[in-house]
Design goal:
7 helices; three-stranded parallel sheet
Length: about 150
């Protein structure tokens, strides 16, 4: 076997353009793709990552719901917010930025995000579908939110 050298920057740009075109087509139908990004606390690396996500979503014509919670947010409060986002039909993807504060069980948080909105693909159902190469959010729509 020979190695294939890929130009990651060029591939990323190609994916971004494709996503932008698909987002515009969806918007023509009256739906604006929306990613809710939840950040608990003020981890500098997480803040930078979230900022870059917001910029990329805006460039693609998608909506970003930036939800920032204080470090003192309880696990119950975070899980309640995730439940609200799961039920919100205008939110198409949910990303809870890791790491969460130590007093919050990250596995519970990952399991709380509905598989059909699980952009990170951390829900057990999402992981299973991805490993088994089954259809699902992670296989079909992950590109739209993560390749920015």
């Amino acid at each position: 076997m020979s190695a294939i050298i890929m130009d990651g920057k060029a591939l990323g740009q190609k994916i971004r353009e494709s996503v932008k075109i698909r987002a515009a087509a969806i918007k023509e139908k009256g739906i604006t793709p929306c990613l809710a990004v939840v950040l608990v606390g003020e981890d500098p690396a997480s803040l930078s990552y979230v900022k870059s996500k917001e910029k990329a979503l805006a460039e693609a014509g998608m909506e970003s719901r930036d939800i920032r919670l204080p470090q003192t947010t309880s696990e119950a409060e975070l899980l309640s917010l995730i439940d609200e986002l799961n039920k919100n039909e205008k939110v198409h993807g949910i990303l809870v930025q890791s790491p969460v504060p130590k007093h919050i069980d990250e596995e519970k948080v990952n399991a709380a995000v509905a598989p059909e909105k699980d952009v990170d693909c951390f829900h057990p159902v999402s992981v299973g579908n991805m490993i088994l190469d089954r259809p699902g959010f992670c296989r079909v729509r992950r590109t739209a939110f993560l390749f920015f």
